Amino acid sequence: MKHARLGSTGLRVSRIGLGCMSYGDPGTGLHRWTLDEDAAAPFFRQAVELGVTFWDTANVYQGGTSEEFVGRAIRRFSRREDIVLATKVSGRMHDGPGGSGLSRRAILEQVDASLRRLGTDYIDVYYLHRFDPETPVEETVATLDTLVRDGKVRYLGASSMGTWQFAKLQHTAVVNGWTTFAAMQDQYNVLKREEERDMIPFCRDQGVGLTPYSPLAKGRATRPWDEQTARSSSDEVARTFDRDADKPVVDAVQAVAEARGLPMAQVALAWVLSKPVVSCPIVGATKPHHLNDAVAALDVELTADEIAALEAPYTAQDNYWW
User: CATH code at 56?
Assistant: First the structure.
């Protein structure tokens, strides 16, 4: 396994991260394709064996059961000190005043709930899952700084928001001498590149490392255009990668993969890994070859011509940070 620093911090993370949204009680969330604990266990074990030690979850994934699975898997297959553990806050956990959002009340309540479910006394990277327009950013960032000073959180991150929103959060931290943000988890892949407009230049300037989710475009960049999967046919988000304009990009991934004699997944992920701002793409694994392909992609070095061929067919989108 290769490693990289998380942005400009001293924290070293595995170059591939394990996305844990796929693991949790299927009856407690929106995603019916998630794996229960017995079915998820082999993937946690495989991650440890491959050296994939950055594990990413969120409090809202399957009603908190993803965090519970992750916490037990760490104790079963690894050691807490060997895992870089990330989770998130802001989504709705209940209807009370501390059940969602980024108020001081909500963050303090939800971080303690996550720590209990994870069975740990600290979180390595704590992400704001979404921007909260109803809470002053000063209240949010001051509370996060308190968590770091109290030792409950080591590093801060944010996810899925506009660049101006992230810049406002970061600026607030800087001018007040509070802990700044070290990571941005946005959607970035060969089929969604809108973050290249503003977010990625901003992160480069600020020393923020990208830990992108959906680096394989919900699997759309891993198979020929006319092939479907159970998730792609039932998941509303996955179907957003079925634009007619996406077909030439998928075809380009297929052409490079066939010329190299590689799976399309390795080529698509190698493209993401080729971007210097990317510290650790987050890969969801529900089949044994998913993590094997992801780790193998670390050794795939695309040529400048191959990168140009993958990027040339792309067309811009309007709604670009989700």
Answer: 3.20.20.100
Report yes or no: 257 and 263 within 8 Å, Cβ to Cβ. yes
Residue of 272, 155, 140, 162 whose CA lies nearest to 207: 155
Number of compact structural domains in the chain: 1
pLDDT digits (tens, 9 = 90+) for 90-140: 999 999 999 999 999 999 999 999 999 999 999 999 999 999 999 999 999
Asked whether residue 293 is assigned to any structural domain, the reply reads no
Q: What does the pLDDT look like over 141-200, one tens digit per residue?
A: 999 999 999 999 999 999 999 999 999 999 999 999 999 999 999 999 999 999 999 999
pTM for this predicted structure: 0.94
Residue pointed to by tokens 């290249």 = 196
Report if residue 18 sits inside a domain.
yes
Positive or negative torsion for Cα 113, 95, 60, 65: positive
Per-residue buried b or exposed e for 62-91, using 16+ beta carbons within 10 Å of the residue's own CB? bbbbbbbbbbbbbeebbeeeebbbbbbbbe
In a domain, 297, yes or no: no
Phi, psi of 170 (to 5 degrees): -65, -45
**CA dist 140 to 40, 71, 112, 153, Å?**
34, 26, 16, 14
Question: 236: pLDDT confidence band, cut at 50, 70 and 90?
Answer: low
- Please compute, for residue 265, the number of CA atoms within 13 A of its CA located in the half-sphere on the CB side: 16
Domain that holds residue 78: 3-218+277-287
Q: Is 155 a catalytic residue?
A: no
Q: Taking the CA atoms of 303, 304, 310 and 316 in sequence, report the sign of the dihedral they define.
A: positive
Q: Which of 61, 155, 188, 213 is catalytic?
A: 61
The C-alpha R_g of the chain, in whole angstroms, comes to 19
Note whether residue 34 is domain-resident. yes
Would you say residue 88 has pLDDT above 80? yes
